[in-house]
């Protein structure tokens, strides 16, 4: 089993574990482990947000692992997701709790029954993936009803549209003259990507119309991004972070960027792709590490006190893949660096900090038993550049939206390892993958060595790397030397027949790179595309240690 599939296998186990059997397999959103006993706790994102992500990631994981059967937990989560469409208007509602409860996210009492905009985007992804998994006509109807529901609550202006609020209550009646709410990217921009994918994969014109309208508002009628791509997101007060004025949230900004770029591709609007790319490049250049670490917020606690959310890593990868699809092939190299490094390191494999040695009785909202077993294989919500425990004020806690996001990110990387166009196979991301077409194996960071075994005949192109010395590459097919010809950005190795084995060897340079990220100075040691050490090392649960093979 290849590396990505092994990691997703751990993630699949996590999806089946981090649920509450008492409540029909409702996922736990928060895992808090600063103290003993660790606590798994429910909160308002459990519903449309988390269940939508779980449905999607269950399916993607099974696709990678070739598991055809739907398990008991996945079936239960699907049932939960459908239950939230309980107002007959096509939208997904957070169920009203039997009584108000204290939200550990909002730090106040919570008692809402709303269809929130960000939730709708996650549910769209879940329904789209669910429909494609089995072509169930009832799921397609549900998806079409949801599009109709969104169409009823969007304010339309000529050829663009926006939302006037972050969430809708049952029986909501739209004021067609309402002004836009601040910061559309969180509550509506994050819907653009699933909407345009629904349109281009299944031809649903209403999904296309909504995606284009939301894109046009952000690109042509807002000031959320400055002309050079800089994000316009001044800091906000604590009260405003919990409101529709949510501002510098990088997960939703990057999700919006990925969506706009994809709309630009589908609509043949390279200017929209460039708009998205400027926003992506500004953020990555000014706030991220080259190996994928990114802050969860801009302007919340200050640059030195933020952590890295796996959801943002997923969106970095989605955006970079869109730019690569548009023809900017250099972004594949960025995807590979992010995947090899921060994405892998953000997966929780060592759970020694998650302790339940002290006894405490479970409550309606919380579980205090075997919490480490629930979250092993999940993904970090606030990691640091060199430590799983980051510098955010919310460290020693997992947001379990990041678990399915990590699985989705690994799936997207795995899916894009190569492209097949007729008789031509283009290798774009040089990470392990095996399927009926080929088997790709790499040896980084131990050595610069990869092999491609053809399981059927095809013409092989390998995307060149910026750090390769092309003239010094050593290639052979079945032991016979083969010299690659240049073919645009690719190296052309000619035709392979079934059973042929290409071996490619290259120098694996080691580089020590000074880097200022998360408000601190580090020295990052690279071996090829892989980070093998960071100085100073992490102090609590160090990352990037022992990466020799």
Mean pLDDT: 94
So what's the oligomer here? single chain
State the total count of DSSP E strands: 26
- Low-confidence segments, given as residue ranges, are none
The largest sheet is: 6 strands, antiparallel
Globally, the shape reads: globular
The DSSP helix count reads 15
- Helical fraction equals 25-40%
Indicate the radius of gyration in whole angstroms: 23 Å
List the strand order in the largest sheet: 15-16-17-23-19-20
Structure class: alpha+beta
Roughly how many Å apart are the termini? 16 Å
Commentary on this structure:
This protein is an alpha+beta fold and 549 residues long. The longest helix is centred in the first third of the chain and has 19 residues, at 47-65. The two termini are 16 Å apart. It is built from 15 helices and 26 strands. The protein has a 6-stranded antiparallel sheet, covered by helices on one side. It has a 5-stranded mixed sheet with strand order 13-14-18-22-21, with no helix packed on it. α2 (47-65) packs parallel to α4 (117-134) and α2 (47-65) runs parallel beside α15.
Core attributes:
single chain, 26 strands, five-stranded mixed β-sheet, alpha+beta, six-stranded antiparallel β-sheet, 549 residues, globular
């Amino acid at each position: 089993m290849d590396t990505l599939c092994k990691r997703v296998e751990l993630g699949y186990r996590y999806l089946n574990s981090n649920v509450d059997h008492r409540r029909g397999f409702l996922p736990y959103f928060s895992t808090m482990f600063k103290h003993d006993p660790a606590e798994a706790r429910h909160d308002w994102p459990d519903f449309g947000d988390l269940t939508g992500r779980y449905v999607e990631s269950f399916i993607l994981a099974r696709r990678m692992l070739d598991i055809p059967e739907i398990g008991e937990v996945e079936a239960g989560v699907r049932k939960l997701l459908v239950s939230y469409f309980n107002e007959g208007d096509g939208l997904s509602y957070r169920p009203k709790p039997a009584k108000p409860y204290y939200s550990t996210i909002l730090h106040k009492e919570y008692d809402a029954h709303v269809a929130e905009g960000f939730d709708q985007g996650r549910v769209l992804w879940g329904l789209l993936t669910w429909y494609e998994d089995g072509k169930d006509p009832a799921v397609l109807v549900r998806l079409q009803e949801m599009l109709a529901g969104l169409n009823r609550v969007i304010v339309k202006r000529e050829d663009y549209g926006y939302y006037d609020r972050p969430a809708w209550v049952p029986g909501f009646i739209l004021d067609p003259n309402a002004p836009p709410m601040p910061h559309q990217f969180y509550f509506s921009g994050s819907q653009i990507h699933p909407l345009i994918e629904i349109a281009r994969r299944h031809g649903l014109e209403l999904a296309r119309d909504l995606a284009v309208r939301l894109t046009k508002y952000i690109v042509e009628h807002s000031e959320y991004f400055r002309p050079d791509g800089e994000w316009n997101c001044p800091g906000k007060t604590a009260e405003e972070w919990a409101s529709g004025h949510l501002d510098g949230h990088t997960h939703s900004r990057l999700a919006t960027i990925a969506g706009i770029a994809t709309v630009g591709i589908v609509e043949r609007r390279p200017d929209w792709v460039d708009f998205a790319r400027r926003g992506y490049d500004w953020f990555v250049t000014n706030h991220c590490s080259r190996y994928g670490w990114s802050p969860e917020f801009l302007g919340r606690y200050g640059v030195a006190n933020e952590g890295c959310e796996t959801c943002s890593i997923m969106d970095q990868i989605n955006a970079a893949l869109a730019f690569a699809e548009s023809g900017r092939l250099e972004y594949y190299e960025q995807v590979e660096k992010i995947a090899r490094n921060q994405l892998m390191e953000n997966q929780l494999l060592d759970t020694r900090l998650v302790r339940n040695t002290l006894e405490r009785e479970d409550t309606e909202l919380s579980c205090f038993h075997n919490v480490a077993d629930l979250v092993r294989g999940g993904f970090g919500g606030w990691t640091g550049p060199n430590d799983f425990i980051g510098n955010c004020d919310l460290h020693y806690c997992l947001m379990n939206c990041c678990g399915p996001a990590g699985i989705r990110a690994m799936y997207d990387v795995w899916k894009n390892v190569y492209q097949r166009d007729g008789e031509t196979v283009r290798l774009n991301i040089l990470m392990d993958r095996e399927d009926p077409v080929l088997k790709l194996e790499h040896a980084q960071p131990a050595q610069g060595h990869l092999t491609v075994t053809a399981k059927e005949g095809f013409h092989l192109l390998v995307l060149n790397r910026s750090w390769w010395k092309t003239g010094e590459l050593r290639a052979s097919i079945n032991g016979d030397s083969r010299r690659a010809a240049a073919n645009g950005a690719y190296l052309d190795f000619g035709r392979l027949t079934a059973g042929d084995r290409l071996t490619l060897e290259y120098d694996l340079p080691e580089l020590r790179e000074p880097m200022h990220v998360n408000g601190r100075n580090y020295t990052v040691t690279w071996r090829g595309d892989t980070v093998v050490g960071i100085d100073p090392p992490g102090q609590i649960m160090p990352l990037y240690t022992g990466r020799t093979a």
